[in-house]
Design brief:
The complex is a heterotrimer of chains A (about 500), B (about 350) and C (about 375). Chain A is α/β, with parallel strands linked by helices. Chain A is about 30% helix and about 25% strand. Classes of the chains: A alpha/beta (about 500), B alpha/beta (about 350), C mainly alpha (about 375).
């Protein structure tokens, strides 16, 4: 059906694709896995005509085809759904689908006729999308299905999906996989780019593993295991599930009572003890961001009500700096927006938040930055957290997502913290780094620190947390034992379903 | 890459060409004259134009090398003077009183060179101050205006609101009142910055307002802005006998040709003569410093009567004005100098 | 490893540009410096090439014109002296704008700040005219810095307090500055009967010496004065302030990413006010050159838009003190050379210099776009 043969692509000095060969059989679901920067997106963007390969060829139905633009690809029946949707929020489904698909202006188009076709496509694949609905009123999962419809409308026979599950809840993922299976039944070919091994095993027929721009192996899914795929991806043995001893909770470190923020948080109460990890699961946008920022001192005092006791002291009036001085470290959910000065060096980033006091400034003046001790601190973070490349002079921007994350976590560990607020610690991070970060978090717990972990990855919270709360619409809807609760149970609570706990 | 190479070649030869190669301008035996115009520029058909005419006449009569600069903005004036000075120009002329501080600053740094400032007064020994008794000329055109006016109301449009122009205004008013003690003069000024010399739109606006208040003769002492007043009187047209309804009086250069029939006369300030004379003095190696005053007695100031306006002013009026002129020269009439008040 | 090389190649050397050159990192830093200078140099060459074509089209000889331009800007001593003299105010305003940029602020108001500072400095120089130089020079310098800083603090506070945009406010403050200085000059500080809108001269004790009065061999007629030395010192101080102190760190953090700065416990509002004040103080230092070192009085319209040229200088100098210094010298040389081209060529006017400046800035801006694009393609890998 679709074949990439000896595709090579360079960006400057970076070899993004090195003689990549991928054969996708018609009517199959083909997964392409690899860590960030492995070159999987690049290869698929070449197939979609988004980039041009430096050398190599693309075969469609066995014939070499010049694909220079996405238009060429669409004409050959290749469609792609990007990680970030390309939809106009204020237009209807039908308008979005027709937009750019057909010649002529939007006004002269036969929207109603298109609507009919969209409706019948939607029914054929059980997508349940109303062509007349306005995009901004749809959920993320529905928007994704609109993207699928867009490709189907343009008569795509091959659908390339770039990290499609990143934005979905566990329930939505199941539904989504049903849709993909139906497409396969209808004779469509699906290529799915991902780094989540459980999904690969759940949905795909065949899998191609990439690392450092090269293809390292093809497997029939039925004949491989997660461990084998992980080893291929990372290049060494990986522990997929962190091994940890049972927690030994000590005294109460943080006690939150009836914390509320208008329209965002609704009477949240909980405690965390020294030496335990409290996980908070939930679909994004249900108040997790606000909760963490409120605890870190980044929300205006006037917007909050309730009390926050830290180590026996009311801190809700303290500034972010004062809280940090007390030992509250914070790994923000959006590392590039909140956590880093991208254009500043690793060394400079390693002192953000403690830059104003010893040892970052020299004791004598209290004003001048102490280059040597900053460098030493950066070096400790780099070595302790395996930040690569190990060069404290590089700008943070030059690091991969995983290494940026390790830099932030390393910096916060240096505080040293009594309480660590950590949000989405492994988002967009390689499997190897995920394992590393998880081990570090557990080690921090074992050293007697309290950890509040927020993550949209159910796998993550269930694996790491000692206790698990579920947040929905700004309230804690329940607490479960992560070792006992099933994903379905938790997923139901994440979607606002029944409460299984009587704690308020 | 080839392009880059050739560029490098070009750049590398550049320093080899000495700046001194620039043209014929370096005949050291000749007197070098540099003139720095006012913001209006040498085509203002008025003050700067007169100065330009003067140096050009001198360049024809004497073997001098002449360079000019139109600075365009006030901050470029002094650098231009410094450039002349640095190149050893023998005489550097600044046009307009606003250049006085700059020319003094440069003259202090180059005490061996000669400088001249038109309309300004400097006490430095190497700066010639070329000043005019504008109040006397204004007195005469004020008389003509009063004898011409039917409404008994006159207009005065000044450029920048500064003492120098107050000199025009007061002389004008005194001349008019000498003819008709009841006459009224409406004075307006275009502005308080340099820009006031170069705003014909505002000049026209002021003139129109004055006409609406009844003024039928307007004296425009406003450089380029004054040209707006010319447009304003033209708009009121001529009567049945072909006589203009409203008149304007020009300034500095003779401007009667610009709108024939509408320009009653011009208060002529012979900047050209003054500039010509100072160049001549320098060429003939006469000492230059000090104040050079130009008035009625030495033809530095006057009023224009030529083929464009001789029909507008009746003979008796001219006789009266000539008589007054003689009295001013002999001191029988004292016109107040607003700057000495 | 390939990724690393890629980043190192096009990269963001700004982060560490000109960090102290020491030890083994020396060569790497040197390479960085060379890379950093390549693009501006190409931009300048390209601008001169286009300018040369224009000169030829007008009908003058481009080689002679450029020889005049460069020769008059670099001749000894007058050319160099004047180039440095013209560069001095641009160093101050370039630093002022760069300081704003480093905090993510666009200070369009350097013009107003230096106007107010010049007036205030003249005021101090007149009011305390009888003091000795030991008193008067530090006092007037202090007034120059403080008044510029104060004028800039107003839009800074407005931004921090009410979020109103500093571009609008600083522009407005420019108009107010000129109006206030003119009105006060007109009413209180003018010599009787002076037709020009200028103050009385400042006391002799406030005059700072010309370089020519200190260093033998440089003629004292060149108005280059100690303010130039102050300007170079200001470059060094600004470097130390921004990259070597905790305050500079906080300002840069705010400029680089206000969200992250806030996360790092930095008060973004405080940094905005502080950066504006320092920026305004730097702009105000123009008065040291213009009032204390050159004109010895304030007069209306003394600045040929130094504040706005400062934006171009900062852009060309990449908001780094060393870059600002180089860019200001370049602009100073163009000003000086342009004057001679204007006067001593037959047809070319000084607009050539404006065109050259505009072209250089255009090419530099184009380079920024080019770099960003390169950066984007790489980050998609």
């Amino acid at each position: 059906m679709l074949e990439l043969r000896n595709i090579t692509k360079r960006f400057g000095n970076v070899l993004a694709n090195d003689r990549v060969n991928i054969v996708v059989r018609p009517g199959s679901i083909h997964a392409i896995v690899g860590e960030n920067g492995a070159g999987k997106s690049t290869a698929m963007r070449i197939a979609y005509g988004f980039y041009r390969a430096d050398s190599g060829e693309i075969l469609v139905d066995g014939k070499p085809q010049p694909i220079h633009t996405p238009h060429d690809a669409i004409a050959l029946g290749i469609g792609m759904v990007h990680q970030h949707f390309m939809l106009v929020d204020t237009m209807t489904v039908a308008e979005n689908i027709v937009l750019g698909a057909e010649p002529g202006t939007l006004i002269s188009l036969d929207i109603r006729g298109a609507g009919k076709r969209i409706r019948s496509l939607s029914e054929e694949f059980h997508l349940a999308i109303d062509p007349g609905a306005v995009i901004e009123n749809l959920s993320v999962g529905q928007q994704q299905r609109v993207e699928l419809l867009k490709a189907l409308y343009r008569q795509a026979r091959v659908l390339i999906l770039d990290e499609p599950t990143a934005v979905l809840t566990p329930q939505e993922v199941d539904e989504f996989f049903q849709i993909l299976r139906r497409m396969r039944e209808q004779g469509k070919t699906v290529i799915i780019i991902t780094h989540k091994l459980d999904e690969v095993l759940a949905i795909s027929d065949e899998v191609t593993v990439m690392r450092d721009g090269r293809v390292l192996g093809h497997r029939k899914t039925a004949e491989t295991t997660a461990a084998e795929l992980a080893r291929l991806m990372v290049g060494r043995e990986v522990l997929l599930r962190v091994q940890k001893k049972p927690a030994v909770p000590g005294r109460v470190i943080l006690s939150v009572r009836r914390l509320s923020m208008k329209g965002r948080l609704n009477g949240i109460s909980f405690v965390i003890r020294a030496g335990e990890i409290l996980g908070i699961a939930g679909v994004e946008g249900n108040g997790q961001t606000e909760l963490i920022e409120a605890l870190a001192g980044l929300v205006g005092e006037s917007e909050l009500s309730g009390s926050i006791d830290f180590d026996g002291r009311e801190i809700s009036r303290l500034s972010a700096r004062q809280r940090k001085e007390l030992g509250i470290a914070h790994v923000p959910e959006d590392r590039q927006r909140r956590g880093l000065l991208l254009d500043a060096s690793v060394a400079e980033n390693s002192i953000l938040g403690v830059h104003y006091r010893e040892p970052a400034v020299t004791g004598r003046s209290g004003i001048m930055l102490d280059d040597a001790s900053i460098r030493a601190r950066a070096q400790r973070v780099i070595e302790g957290f395996d930040v690569r490349p190990a060069n404290s002079e590089l700008p943070a921007r030059a690091l991969s997502g995983g290494n940026q994350q390790k830099l932030i976590i390393g910096r916060e560990f240096e505080l040293p913290p009594k309480l660590l607020l950590v949000s989405q610690p492994t988002r967009g991070v390689d499997i190897g780094a995920i394992e590393f970060i998880h081990r570090k978090l557990v080690a921090l717990r074992d050293s007697g620190c309290a950890v509040l972990l927020v993550s949209a990855e159910l796998e993550e919270v269930t694996a790491i947390a000692d206790r698990l709360m579920v947040i929905y619409a700004g309230r804690i809807v329940g607490e479960v034992d992560p070792t006992l609760a099933t994903n379905e149970e938790i997923g139901l609570m994440m979607a606002g379903g029944s409460r299984t706990s009587d704690e308020d | 890459m080839k392009c880059m190479l050739s560029l490098i070649v070009v750049i590398s030869i550049l320093p080899a060409c000495r700046p001194a190669t620039s043209a014929s301008a370096d005949d050291k035996s000749k007197v070098h004259v540099g003139i720095v115009f006012d913001i209006g520029g040498k085509d203002d058909r008025s003050f700067n134009a007169a100065a330009w005419q003067g140096v050009n006449r001198a360049a024809k009569d004497f073997p001098i090398i002449l360079r000019d600069v139109e600075p365009g903005d006030p901050t470029s004036i002094e650098p231009a003077m410094r450039a002349f000075a640095e190149r050893g120009y023998d005489l550097i002329i600044g046009v307009g009183f606003a250049q006085t501080p700059q020319i003094e600053a440069v003259a202090k740094d180059y005490p061996k060179l000669n400088f001249a400032i038109v309309d300004g007064v400097s006490r430095l020994p190497n700066v010639a101050s070329l000043i005019f008794k504008e109040h006397e000329g204004s007195y005469l055109v004020g008389m003509i205006a009063a004898m011409t006016s039917r409404s008994g109301i006159l207009g005065f449009v000044g450029g920048m609101d500064v003492p120098l122009i107050h000199k025009f205004e007061l002389g004008y008013e005194e001349g008019a009142k000498a003819v008709n003690p009841k006459i009224r003069v409406i004075p307006n000024y275009v502005g308080v910055t340099d820009a006031a010399w170069n705003d014909p739109v505002k000049g026209k606006e002021l003139a129109r307002t004055q006409i609406e208040k009844g003024a039928d003769v307007i004296f425009a002492a406003a450089g380029n802005s004054g040209l707006g007043a010319f447009d304003a009187v033209e708009q009121y047209g001529k009567d049945g006998q072909g006589r203009a309804q409203r008149f304007v009086i020009g300034v500095d250069s003779n401007q009667t040709w610009m709108k024939p029939g509408f320009v009653l006369t011009s208060m002529v300030k012979r900047v050209d003569n003054a500039v010509y004379q100072i160049v001549k003095d320098r060429v003939e190696n006469r000492p230059i410093g000090g104040v050079h005053v130009y008035g009625l007695e030495n033809e530095g100031i006057g009023y224009a009567v030529d083929q464009y306006n001789k029909d507008l002013i009746p003979q008796p009026a001219i006789q009266a004005v000539e008589a007054a002129k003689q009295k001013i020269i002999t001191g029988q009439i004292k016109v107040t100098n607003a700057m000495e008040k | 490893m390939s990724r690393i090389q890629g980043y190192a190649k096009n990269a963001y050397p700004l982060a560490n540009f000109l960090a102290p050159l020491r030890g083994a990192r020396y060569t790497a830093q040197l390479m960085k410096l060379i890379r950093e200078l390549t693009f501006p140099l190409i931009a300048i060459l390209a601008a001169f090439l286009v300018g040369g074509i224009l000169v030829a089209l007008i009908g003058d000889d481009p080689i002679q014109t450029y020889a005049l331009l460069i020769g008059s800007a670099l001749s000894w001593p007058d050319g160099i002296g004047y180039t440095l003299f013209y560069a001095t105010p641009l160093i101050f305003t370039g630093l002022a704008v760069a300081m704003g940029f480093r905090c993510g602020l666009l200070n369009i108001g350097a013009e107003g700040q230096l106007t107010v500072a010049a007036f205030a400095t003249a005021w101090a120089g007149i009011s305390f005219a009888n003091s000795s130089a030991w008193m008067l020079i530090p006092l007037t310098c202090l007034v120059a810095i403080a008044s510029g800083a104060l004028w800039a603090t107003i839009p800074g506070v407005l931004k921090a307090r009410f979020g109103s945009h500093e571009v609008i406010n600083t522009i407005m403050m420019n108009f107010i500055a000129v109006g206030v200085a003119s009105a006060l000059t007109q009413t209180y500080f003018k010599q009787q009967g002076d037709p020009i809108l200028e103050t009385l001269p400042i006391g002799d004790g406030a005059h700072i010496p010309r370089i020519g009065q200190i260093i033998p061999g440089i003629p004292a007629r060149i108005p280059l004065n100690m303010a130039f030395v102050v300007a170079v010192l200001a470059c060094a101080l600004m470097y130390v302030f921004l990259w070597r102190t905790k305050w500079g760190y906080e300002i840069r953090a705010t400029g680089a990413n206000p969200n992250a700065a806030e996360y790092g416990g930095i008060s973004v509002k405080k940094q905005i006010v502080l950066a504006m004040a320092v920026s305004g103080g730097l702009a105000g230092m123009v008065a040291i050159n213009e009032v204390l070192g050159y004109r010895y009085r304030y007069y209306q319209g003394f600045s040929p838009q130094y504040g706005f040229t400062g934006i171009a200088v900062a852009l060309l100098g990449r908001n780094h003190p060393a870059g600002v210094l180089v860019a200001a010298l370049f602009f100073g040389a163009l000003t000086r050379g342009g004057l001679f081209v204007d006067i001593f060529t037959e047809k070319v006017s000084k607009d050539l210099v404006l065109i050259l400046q505009a072209l250089v800035i255009l090419f530099v801006a184009a380079e920024a776009v080019f770099r960003r694009r390169m950066g984007k393609t790489e980050s998609q890998v």
